[in-house]
Structure formats: structure tokens, C-alpha cells
Structure prediction request, 335 residues.
Amino acid sequence: MESYKRIIHEVATKTSIQNEDIFDYEHSPLKDEFDTTFEFYYEALLNNAHYGIEPSLLFFKNDTSINAAAGLNNGHYIIYIHMGTILGLINRFKQKSDLLNNCDVDDYIEFENSLDIPINELMYQNAMHYTFYHEMAHLIQKSDLLEQTLYESSNNENDFSIKKHLLELDADQFSSLCIGAHTLQYVKKIWGTELTNEQLEKTLILICSSALFYILSFETNKLEIYYKENSHPHPVIRITCIVFHIVGYVSQALDKEGYNIELNIKNIVNKCLDFSNKLAVKKFDVNLIEDYKVIIGREAINITEYLKEMRELEEKDMTLAAYKWNIIAEQMNTK
Prediction:
């Protein structure tokens, strides 16, 4: 608690954020979970100071909704995660020790024996990773919109600009690269050079499924698919890009390191959807994934055209977080 107490004191005294907006978890029954989460991500924030995002602050907002935001306030780069996000993800994943039971995924139950943590906890961790790194990407972008505060899940249906869509897709890509790096670190720790196609594929399906569940829980997913509307791209488009980015990064990185592993991204996407749908139907009484598959099949051409336009904008923009990631990666590789 000492680190968090110090940081929230800074938030309250050095920014315009009010005390009542700050969640103090000292007396929460989930104190240890909040403390572990804060320590991990605050360290990650400090470790990424080379992007020029300092002084930086991280705190939990006293709000029970599922959301997170990034902003620039009185010269401080700030990430705040709604305490409801932690509670929601704990309920969805971490507390569900029976997550895989009676879901017709016996091969994953068997696969779990080779991991160092239960699958429901692995999925919880990666949903949190997605949330944090997406917000950190907004800090790295340093866009003019940062002073207005960029929220992750927005219900502002009329607040469209192509720039906002670009920033959100870029933040998703940056988050995917970070998740890919964590995934690489994880599989190499567990299996080392003995890593097989099946082990990697199953791990990626679990990782991508956690992001899929999180993104498809946003209110905007209840809307019909749209393109040039709203402040954020439609969740169906976002999760499609996220899965491709994660798998693509891991595949390329392992290939560079000499691993003899071949990944078929489309097969992994389909298996990810199948795995997620079995869990969604049995554990959450929703059919999100089936709806997703219908939309993808119907809108493939329109989605492709939209993403083509966004990629053309990406190529010209050196302020984007994914561009900056690649520059730093190249610098590290040449050392």
C-alpha cells in the first residue's frame, strides 16, 4: 500500500483529479489483488519512460463501471483504471475456477496441467494486460486529444473523427505487441526450446480469447456494425485486428529466433472463436461469438476497405505508438 498511497497523494495534490474520484483499496477485501495489480503496472509504466511519458501516474478510479482512460493533466501522464474493471474481470475469469468444466474443451483441461497457473487466471492476467497497455499507448501517442482524456469504452455515439479511430486502432496494435511479447516470454519460460506447435497454438487461443471476451463486452458491441461513426471503431473490427496482431507478432518473433514453428493465423482465429463460443454459451449465457462470426461473414468486404484506409493513414503518421515501438525495437536489435 505504501507505493499506492504515495501515488494517489500525488494525483490529489498535483492534478485536478478530486479525492473522491480516487479508489483507496486499503480496506477492500480484494486489497492484495489491487496491490499486486498496481505494483505490476506502475513498474511497467516506469520501465517505459523512454517513450517520454514522465512524470507518470497510475491509480484506480472510484467507479464500478468497466472502463479505463489515459490523459495528460497538469503535465502528468496519467492512466486510471476503473475499480469496476478489476472487479468485473475477477468475476469473469479469476474467480471461475470451473471456467472450463462442462464446456466440451477437455483438451484444454488436460493442457492446463502443463501450465504454471490455471487457465482462468491466465485469461484474467491477459485481459488486464490488454487494458493497461492500450491506455499506455495513448500516452505514447501524445495526441492533442490526450488533454481531454481518452476513455477505453465510450458511449458517445456522435463523437466521430477518423483521427480518433486511428488512435484507438493504434492503441490496440501497441497493446497486442506488448501482449505478444508477454506471451513469448511465457511460452519460453514454460517449454523453452521444446516448444511445440500445439502448445503455442493453444496458448495463443487462450490469450486471444481473453481479449475477445473483454472487447465484446463493450456497450458499443450492441450496435449494428458501423465504420465512420462513433468515437471508437466497432468492437468486431477491433478484436479481429487484435487477434491478427498478437499471432502475427509471436509468429515473426519465433521465426527470427530460429524456432521451427509454423502458425496459420486464420486457423487460430477460427479455433479461438470456437473455444470462446463454447465458454460464452455455457458460462455466460450469451452467444456473442456466433453473432461475431455472422457479422464477419457478411461484412468482410466493407471491413477490408475500412482497414485499408486506416493502414494508409498509419503509414504516414510517426506519432503512433506502434510506429514508436518498432523504432525502439530496431534500435535494440542493432545494439
About this structure: The radius of gyration is 19 Å. The chain has a mean pLDDT of 91. The chain is about 60% helix and 5% strand. The CA atoms of residues 43 and 98 lie 32 Å apart.
